[in-house]
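Fold this complex.
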Amino acid sequence: MATSETIFREYRPSDAERSDRSAGDRLRHRQKVRESIRENIADIIAEESIIGKDRDRVIKVPLRGIKEYRFVYGDNSGGASQGDGDSRPGQVVGKTGKEGPGKGDDMAGDRPGVDYYETDVTLEELIEIMFEDLELPNLERRALREIQSDYSTKRKGYRHVGIRVRLDKRRTAKQRVMRKLARDRRVNGNGAADGDLAEPAEPPAEDDAPGLSALQPDAGAGLRKRRFPFHHDDLRYKHIEVDTREESNAAVMCIMDTSGSMDTMKKYLARSFFFLLYQFIATRYRNVEIVFIAHHTEASEVTEEEFFHKGESGGTFISSGYVKALEIIHQRYHPSLWNVYAFHCSDGDNFDSDNPTALKAGEELAEICNLFGYGEIKPLGSRYYESSMLNVFRRIQAPNFHTVLIERKEDIWPSFKAFLAKDRIKE
Amino acid sequence: MSDLSLDAPIKVSAYDLEDLIEWDRRIREKVDEFGLDCFPQEFEICDHNQMLGYMAYNGMPSHYPHWSYGKAYEKLKTLYDHGVTGVPYEMVINSSPAIAYLMRDNTLLLQILTIAHVYGHNDFNKNNFTFKSTRAELTVETFKAHALRVRRYVEDPSIGMEKVERVLDAAHSLQFQCRRNLAIRKLSPEEQIERAVENAQPRSDPFQKIHARQQRVEPDLRKVPTEPDEDVLLFIRDHNPYLADWEKDLLTMVDEEAKFFIAMMETKIMNEGWATYWHKKILESLNLEQGLHLEFIVRHNQVARPIPGQLNPYHLGLRIWEDVYRRWSEPTAEEIKRDGAPTKPAREKLFEIREVERDASFLRRYLTEDLLRDMDIFQYEARGEDYVVSKVADDEGWREVKETLIKNVGTSSIPVIKVEDADFGQNRTLYLKHYHDGRDLHLEYAEKTIAYLQRLWAREVVIETTLEGKKSLLCCNDRGFSVRALK
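Structure:
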């Protein structure tokens, strides 16, 4: 050992910059995270309450795909660790579910960790990934763009700052002239010799105001002194305010059958539909209120949580949900002030005796709502031995009433599109 | 006009490379004086980003690409950015020359401490028996060659990343299902058969007349493997004829790397304790000036302090090494009465232990009841939602606490699973057995891992285990995963 020299390799910043060795692996990891979110999107939509939420909201997504599984011991194995000098049997030292108190070696044999295997995604991203999942992203974008026209914009004065397209060249030029006049007056008044004391000669940055630099004739070195460039203070931008109309309020009635026959899959499909509907309406109106009505033989207004997680048993009176919705509309969202949208999801398994009442209530809803839809959710295979409300509702003649049949996940998007197409025809 | 050296470089750190070289020289004098026996040493000075990169790749200067390292990096970086963990002062890899990284931004004292610490690891890695099977001179080259080969497979248009990943993902999940004690030679299939035949021979019994006749059990020599095989990846490589050469190569590589890391996992406590013991000794003997000395005391305590609720290998290891030194140099009367007088000088004893033990045996032999009690090591178990202290190191409990501790260090925290039969039920079902020691497998993890096994074996895979006291069979085939109760 004494014979060989220790080698010191010095730090070289250039190496450090080049040595981002993990870049490729990190990219691949992020791709996998995204894939994993896509795969789990059904669960996320089914689990989280995301419908009435802000798009910037952050959602915790459990990542099932990228845990690194290996054989490890489960919960029945205890461990040993060091105390603070005063450990007593029975003392609580940690929580199961989290990593055990014993510190595992980093390399292997780790207890399955829970915390890290979640990632935060904003709702916005989730919607994006979801539309990716539905594989028709462009259509959705178009639909969203058309909505912009609902806002009107109004010019309201001028500002010093703004985006390039709103630059008011005339006013900007005028400002410069005014400043020049003021400067000349000051210079002459003081009797100072030349323009050296004037505003610092700031050459107009080429990309600062393209098109304006042409106003500056480059008159050679002799004229340089008299050059009087534009200054940041000269810039004037048009200010535009978004004008929202009074009636841009909307209320969405989500009505769902929570009778015993609505299982998790059906609720997931319903939820996906409501989710899209809400997202759509939220882009169209400034103020969207959302009402969840759950019904079996009776209806009640519930929270989103309850709406999707409450399971009831027993039969179904669809009319009860509609009557409840009508009641809420009359109380809180009068159609003269609100745009009301109603959508009802059910597996169509209604008591026959209720059908006439349901039909009547449905007609009434269609009358006062901008759009009223009925979605029948029948996961594949179940269609043939259950009754259907689609036949019954065929009798509703209102132009803003629409029915859709959703059999599986892939149907949600086409159904949703069809639903909105109806809306466009009406306008 | 004047040389007011405003543009002379401003020294960011209070030392430069020459200082480090000088300190290294002084430390090496001590290393030689204490009789440590090291590989040649290389230090690389890096910044924290590079350090995070090295950590993500287990310290390797080159390593094949896989997304899990990207994940490791992201995790480390997140923890670091949020101040949950710092970056370590050093990283040493077991190679010859030994490579260690020094963080550029560390204070001079930290560099001195780190250098001394690194020589401790270096000596340990060179001399401990578990590292003998890894050829240190070839470490860096081997990893580099692996990286080249994996990259070639990724770039090969007939293979590509996805296929490589499919194999690597599966192989990584089974990586540590391999032999842990590499000092025990593995018998070749022929030798195993020989041994089986030999074992079946009736033993000579001088008291034949009074004993019952020995039952001769005919050994099943056609069974593959003859003896249960713990090297799962290698077994699959050798017995699944449908694997392509590149797939076999990947399995070999992953197994080789696992065996390299097994040595480190097996000696974590000893190794960290040893390096800590020596950096302490070396720095104490360097006659540091007061400022450095005070910083040394602070830093050393940060590294080697007990952390309640955890097991700090630096602390645990150091305490045992120091205790051994004390017991062999100045044993109490009571200890002499109990254990007999020491037979060799204390330092010689330390060197002997460093060579022939690994964590499990080290703790078993040298972690005494007094130490356990003094360090307040306890045993915990899950009770409902909580982990609850179940035993403390008192008169009744200490043995059990110690057993539990040993069960949870190094590779003992990985379930032992061996291949028992490659042709179970004559339909090429792979039959494995979990050697249950009171700890059940984590079922969700087992389900996913067995699916990886099936991916590599391409036929049904079953594992015999015990779940909540009942013998069970975990099965994975084309129809999915199932758990069956066994009689």
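The radius of gyration of chain B is 26 Å.
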